[in-house]
Amino acid sequence: MISEDLPWYYFACKACNKKVFQKVNNDTPTVGVLVDEEEVYECKTATCKDTVIQYTQRLKIPLTVQDSSGTVSLTLFDRDACRILKTTAANLIEKHVAGGDKGLYPDEFEALLGKKFAFKIDISEFNIENNFWFFGVSKLTDDEDIIFELEKKANNIEVEKSASLNNRFTDMDSEDTVNLNDDNSTDVIMGVTVGTKSNEDVKSKVCCY
């Protein structure tokens, strides 16, 4: 799905492609004189060093994607987004701002929903240091062969995990069990309920790792 509470485009520096910021004008206006306010943007990266720059519009579509292991939040940037949507950021923004789209994001974004892609993501120091779990997409593909191989690998990992868990459960020594003498006891491994028995004295097996 597309996250509706986050912006889907930004102004980018033409030199380094990083986000630019509107320059604050600290000049005191002359009383009684009307001055046209021009929006001036500056890039704060080490490369551009707060210089007033030329900027352009770029897409940064906030997505939530899902597979068999769970969900993750990703940002789809301009290059890949425009290739998939077969349009440009400028066209989408112009249409949306002009009132052609009534929703929170352009209608064209609906083409992303329900599709299957393989993603390569960037996990930056900013993500870790700020506990920010929204990752940028560095590459993506809808190549069916690549997706098939990745899904097969993921399934093999799940099978290996399941087999390892079962082996640990089977190999537990009887002295690691505790008789709870309860009519409704639960077998628990690593905090996950794996089975419930009732109407008899049972033993509960608990492992902590």
TrEMBL record:
The keyword Transport does not apply. It comes from the Eukaryota. Pfam families: Rep_fac-A_C (PF08646). Signal peptide: none annotated. Keywords: DNA-binding, Metal-binding, Zinc, Zinc-finger. CDD domains: RPA1_DBD_C. GO terms for molecular function: DNA binding; zinc ion binding. Residues 4-124 form the Replication factor A C-terminal domain. InterPro entries: Euk_RPA1_DBD_C (IPR047192), NA-bd_OB-fold (IPR012340), Rep_factor-A_C (IPR013955). SUPFAM superfamilies: Nucleic acid-binding proteins. Belongs to the replication factor A protein 1 family. This is Nucleic acid-binding, replication factor A.
